[in-house]
């Protein structure tokens, strides 16, 4: 990817972030925001940050088991690489952190970066399926305040749609793995109405994708992958719930689950590094659906973003310094591999 292209995407992302920030801060009563911060119980921040790092550690554990078909790696390398990768996602454009993460571990464990990156694709698949399941549970169980019946019905309909998507994707991946050539042929037939260049890109991508998926066949290791996936997201949702309690906001855990799903979708929207604006908007408007004021919702969003953003940056730079690794060098190498 050229620097020019990155600059265009970065500028577009900054523009989107600014639009969301203007939308969030207009007609806001800053005195009420300050009042919310004064009333906050800051003792909750320590367990929030602790759980955030527990979540990253669990991600490293899951990554260890995804890498088993390639090599038995050690946590002393996996955890720092995970932290550095997420730190890079927070400060670099175009989600380069995934490539940085793969590069760092590849160098430490002497594994080809492409092989490591293939495991991160599977890592994201586990995240995607877990989030879909959380979304499905939330849509059927969350209770919105009175007067939001239409939204509640919409959430239930969304639950049925999510369930359908979840089952279709699972079936497709199963067939792609077990009947690779036949499934790719069917995809090719379905793509015939589209321009030839679409098929020329999709078919090779599917082939390389499925060939890169290598999972352990041991039931115990598969169970660990599933357990760590749920544990990762439990330790993402729990900090949000604690932050709500720190602001004396009493909502069921399903509300925290719903807001977390909103945050997941928000970070997919092109924005400036650190997901500024989009992240905050998802949190604010998610909370406002539960009749929480805009000012208090914005306070929660700022704390939630800050506790997830700054500690991992500090830890990431510490590991870079400790291991004498150049972020500029690994981001350049990662960027070249994307071309």
TrEMBL record:
<feature type="transmembrane region" description="Helical">
    <location>
        <begin position="42"/>
        <end position="58"/>
    </location>
</feature>
<feature type="transmembrane region" description="Helical">
    <location>
        <begin position="125"/>
        <end position="145"/>
    </location>
</feature>
<keyword id="KW-0812">Transmembrane</keyword>
<keyword id="KW-1003">Cell membrane</keyword>
<keyword id="KW-1133">Transmembrane helix</keyword>
<feature type="transmembrane region" description="Helical">
    <location>
        <begin position="298"/>
        <end position="321"/>
    </location>
</feature>
<dbReference type="Pfam" id="PF03706">
    <property type="entry name" value="LPG_synthase_TM"/>
</dbReference>
<protein>
    <submittedName>
        <fullName>Membrane protein, putative</fullName>
    </submittedName>
</protein>
<dbReference type="InterPro" id="IPR022791">
    <property type="entry name" value="L-PG_synthase/AglD"/>
</dbReference>
<feature type="transmembrane region" description="Helical">
    <location>
        <begin position="222"/>
        <end position="243"/>
    </location>
</feature>
<dbReference type="GO" id="GO:0005886">
    <property type="term" value="C:plasma membrane"/>
</dbReference>
<feature type="transmembrane region" description="Helical">
    <location>
        <begin position="157"/>
        <end position="176"/>
    </location>
</feature>
<keyword id="KW-0472">Membrane</keyword>
<feature type="transmembrane region" description="Helical">
    <location>
        <begin position="249"/>
        <end position="269"/>
    </location>
</feature>
């Amino acid at each position: 990817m050229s620097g020019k292209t990155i600059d265009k995407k970065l500028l577009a992302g900054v523009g989107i972030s600014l639009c969301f920030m203007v939308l969030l801060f207009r007609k806001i009563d800053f005195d009420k925001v300050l009042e919310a911060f004064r009333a906050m119980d800051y003792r909750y921040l320590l367990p929030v940050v602790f759980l955030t790092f527990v979540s990253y550690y669990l991600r490293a554990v899951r990554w260890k088991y995804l890498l088993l078909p390639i090599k038995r790696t050690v946590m002393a390398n996996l955890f720092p690489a995970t932290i550095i990768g997420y730190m890079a996602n927070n400060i670099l454009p175009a989600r380069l952190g995934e490539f940085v993460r793969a590069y760092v571990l590849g160098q430490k464990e002497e594994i080809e970066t492409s092989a490591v990156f293939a495991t991160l694709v599977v890592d994201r698949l586990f995240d995607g399926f877990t989030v879909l399941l959380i979304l499905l549970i939330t849509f059927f169980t969350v209770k919105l305040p009175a007067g939001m019946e239409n939204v509640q019905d919409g959430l239930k309909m969304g639950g049925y749609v999510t369930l359908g998507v979840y089952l279709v994707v699972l079936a497709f991946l199963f067939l792609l793995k077990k009947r690779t050539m036949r499934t790719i042929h069917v995809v090719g037939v379905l793509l015939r109405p589209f321009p030839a260049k679409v098929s020329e890109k999709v078919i090779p991508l599917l082939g390389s994708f499925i060939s890169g998926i290598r999972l352990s066949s041991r039931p115990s290791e598969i169970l660990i992958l599933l357990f760590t996936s749920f544990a990762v997201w439990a330790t993402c949702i729990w900090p949000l719930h604690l932050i709500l309690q720190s602001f004396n906001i009493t909502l069921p855990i399903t509300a925290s689950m719903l807001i977390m799903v909103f945050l997941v979708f928000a970070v997919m929207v092109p924005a400036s590094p650190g997901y500024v604006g989009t992240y905050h908007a998802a949190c604010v408007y998610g909370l406002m659906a539960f009749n929480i004021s805009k000012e208090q919702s914005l306070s929660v969003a700022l704390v939630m973003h800050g506790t997830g953003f700054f500690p991992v940056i500090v830890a990431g730079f510490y590991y870079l310094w400790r291991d004498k690794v150049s972020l500029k060098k690994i981001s350049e190498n990662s960027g070249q591999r994307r071309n």
